[in-house]
Every structure is written in structure tokens, then in C-alpha cells.
Amino acid sequence: MSARIGLIANDRKLGAGELVHEIVNDCLRRGIICELEQRTAQLIGAESEFTPNDLARDCELLVVLGGDGTILQVLHELSGEYRPILGINLGTLGFLTCVGVAGWPLAMAMIASKTYQLSERALLDVQVVRDGEVISRSSALNEAVISRGELSRLIKVEVFIDGVALSAYNVDGLIVATPTGSTAYSLSAGGPVLTPDSGVFVITPICPHVLTMRPVLVSEHALIEITLAPSQQDLFLTVDGQRAVRILSQDKIRITQYPQRLPLAMLPQTSFFETLREKLKWSGTAI
Asked: Domains plus CATH for the chain?
């Protein structure tokens, strides 16, 4: 049976249109059914009514042309239809992508032969509770970030794990990251690198006022609750850098593991540590 893929490209990336054209022609040669997302079709002068959600419902695999940010954007356009995603990197770092732009023929060969492997990634279930009701709910592949508004000042929040107080934080911000997100914002803030199968989330303070405050690992099965300190004014909650929610003084942020996992397509026999060494340029030397 022929593979059916959905193709989604970041139309702001240089060379995206040319690559879409090459992949569409390659699919024709290989007998792969390739459906194009609306904006992606426009890159090659074609027409399509498919949204990312439509493609996730109808296709067995989503091929995303862009960087990590593009994959996160696609994820947040889906409504729980989490099909495997194979990323072809048109960006810079590309931790979530499978191959670089020069490796697209290899990616298509893997799709045709169905030899890619899937890495199941845990997601955060991020809820904002106001007056006892959930007013916002999002899934996060990378992280949830609590931060200040326009004024440059410390924020004060209290964190509870399974109902037990962890700490009151005086910080520039607070990150709750998945293992996948441990190599993103959390890493820049001094958090540890976690393997995708580590089974934990990490709470990373951003520029803590008390230097003994360090990142804390908690089970992926834990309930993380974050409330604003009594004197704290409104803050912002940002999920995967895609959407921001204003948090009022009486709100409660509840973070647990999302019921579903996101399958990311990877090269066969590729180790996470090989990817880590390559992306972070860990050569073992100063040169």
C-alpha cells in the first residue's frame, strides 16, 4: 500500500518552494501520495484546502520543512490528531528534525520503505484554572514559561509538587520543560540535558535571586501547581513560544503529563547522544 504523507513547509524559509517542488516530484516517482497544506501548495502555484489538522487526520505521516519552531507551530495547530512528524531542517539548530536540507532524498527513501524509527516524546498538559474553571489548556512539546510583563522586575511564584510545597521563587522567570525541551530554553537557563526516555520533567528557574535555587527534576507523573505570591501582579504563561496567556493574581497553573505522546521520525539506529554531540558541537576540544 502506498504511503500517504502530508507536506507542510515554512513559507518564510529561503528555498522552501524549490524543495517542495522537488519532494512532490520525488513522491510521484516513488508512488507516494503527497497532500499539500494550503500555504505550502501556494509555494508551487498549486491550490489546496488542507489545514495541518486535515492532513493529520488523513495522512500517516506529516513531513515538515523548517526548523524546530516550525514543528512546534504545526503541533499547536493540531487538535489532538498527533501523527508522526518527520522534520527536514531549513533552520539552524534543528533538534527536532530528522535530516538537514541536503538529506531530503534519504528521508523520502525512508518514507517509501517505511524504515524510519519513531521516538515517542512526552508532552506537558498545561492548564490555567480561574475561579475553579479551566480557562486555558494547551499541550507542550518543549516547555511552559512563566514570565513577567513589560516591566523589568523579579516575579514571585510558589510551586507545589503533588500538593507539597517545593519553594517560593523570586526569579526573572520559571520554566517547566519536557525531556525534549531540556535542550531548548531550559538549557540556556542552566538546566540539565535529559534523554527523551528519562521519564521526568525539569523545573528551571531563570536568574534566581537566591543562588541556591537550582533546577529540580520531578516525575512525569507528578502534578505541578504554580500560584502567584500574594503581592505578585499579573504574569504571562507562554507555551512552546507559540501562545501567551495572562495570569491573574488568583489563577493557578496546573501542569501534568499530556495523555498522548508525539512520535518524531528519526533516522534508523540514530542515538540521541550522537545528535547531542553534533548539535551542541561537543568535540571534546577547545578547537
From this structure: 4-121+261-280 (3.40.50.10330), 124-257 (2.60.200.30)
